[in-house]
D-2-hydroxyglutarate dehydrogenase, mitochondrial
Amino acid sequence: FSQDRYPHVKRGDYTSLDADHLNFFRGLLGEGRVLTKPEDCEAYNVDWIKNVRGYSRCVLKPKTTEEVSGILAFCNERRIAVCPQGGNTGLVGGSVPVFDEVVLSTALMNEIISTNDTSGVLVCQAGCILESLDSHLANHGLMMPLDLGAKGSCHIGGNVSTNAGGLRLLRYGNLQGSVLGLEAVKANGEILDCLSTLKKDNTGYHLKHLFIGSEGTLGIVTKVAIQCPPKPKAVNLAFLGERKYIILTFTSNCVDSFETVLKIVRKAKRELSEILSSCEMMDELTMDVVVSHLKLKSPLPQHPFYMIIETHGSNENHDEEKMNTFLQNIMDEKLVLNGTATSEVSKMKNIWDIRERITEALDRDGYVFKYDISLPIQNFYSLVPAMQERLGTSAKRICGYGHLGDGNLHLNIIVGEFTQDILNKIEPFVYQFTSQLKGSISAEHGIGFRKPKYMHYSKSETSIRLMKELKVLMDPRGILNPYKVLPENK
Ligand code: FAD
Ligand code: 2HG
Ligand code: ZN
């Protein structure tokens, strides 16, 4: 493995794998669930956007909590580093090894344990794929409380470990609220059963929160209990019709029209209130990247901004009336110059495809610098023109899109190829800008491998110190996902 690929990171003093270790793993899991051939390990070593690569020579695929426990107890005793991996769709380099850490993949931990139609609580293993869970729940009149473009690959354990947000957080809240309980394995192999399915439980510290969003650095999540909302009543007809969207576009200049976007957000929140399920935006250059690389067709001519507003409800007539009134009002106030509304399933799918496949399209455009920023809503878009002015023509494309309703901007800067010079122009400026506006340098993707040294732009020294103390308490030998999340001691 290469020491010089990441000059700022030194391999920790971890034990390198030998034949005896591999024999132990084979004894525990069986031959087929211990991958050691380089070609078999390759996909587990490279992240989704191919920004980060590790050199692990061993991928383990447990099926049960007890097997995870056996692996961790063994690794902890010998100080073998472990990188937990779900669907490997993470965007901050947290899911792949940095050096030769053993990859512990949850791909085979994909059993649904129970579904309670009355309480709406789903209990399942961590390796269940988000989309499969949603399809399963549809049969129970329920749905997953989160949805994201990576749904076909990401695992619920990965979602919980990153505290993933997604397209409907606005309506269904974040996972810290929806996860009722979980089971996790500590670094020393001890199994921690916090798998409560109760909505209310105030007995002592809420230990589950240690694992929600800690990106595999404090333990491995093996099971989760999630509160799932009912699918709207019209669901069966309405897989086609339950969701409505409108696309609104603006033709005035950038700044003015973003002011208009904000007015619409405010109106949507007030007028659509309880049925509003998503409020997303993308700018012109984002639409352009999708249209040019994925050959998807934009439903509207070119405009500086596009929005998707979606409603989820239980009464078709009521929802339609509300949406129409909202639409009429924003037309009357001339906030919208062009738009279309539909409940036709294929058209809705086309729109969501455009939105959900932006990351894929950006990936094909060149080398991507990716930023996932929370900003106060009135400053939501300000970082994009600031960056455009700063970088000028040295970037191929600087575009912004994201979860407008939640104040979460995805800033993507695309260049022909990576240079240190351009990186120096972007960072730390992007984080300083965010910090000055009291934003967050990671709204939903996490810190992973790419951002630990910037954590201080969003967290106080005292908070970071406490995080480090927790890490020492939970994982004293530092075997779990080393080099990730926490900044190095200076
Ligand atoms: P991985 O990528 O495998 O791992 C992510 C992190 O969690 C790593 O640090 C890993 O070590 C750790 N981990 C994984 N499983 C476990 C476990 N069982 N126990 C402990 N630690 C574990 N994210 C959003 O928040 N919102 C979005 O809208 C969104 N859209 C996306 C769209 C696309 C096309 C892509 C590629 C990614 C998107 N993401 C989004 C990012 C990513 O999908 C999420 O972070 C997702 O939750 C990661 O799940 P995963 O199973 O792929 O985890
Ligand atoms: C999304 O909302 C994801 O589509 C990915 O969080 C964001 O690629 C990105 O920048
Ligand atoms: Zn997102």
About this structure: The chain has four domains: 19-107, 112-227, 235-358, 366-445+460-472. The first helix runs from residue 19 to 29. Residues 233-245 have pLDDT under 50 and may be disordered. The first strand starts at residue 34 and ends at 35.
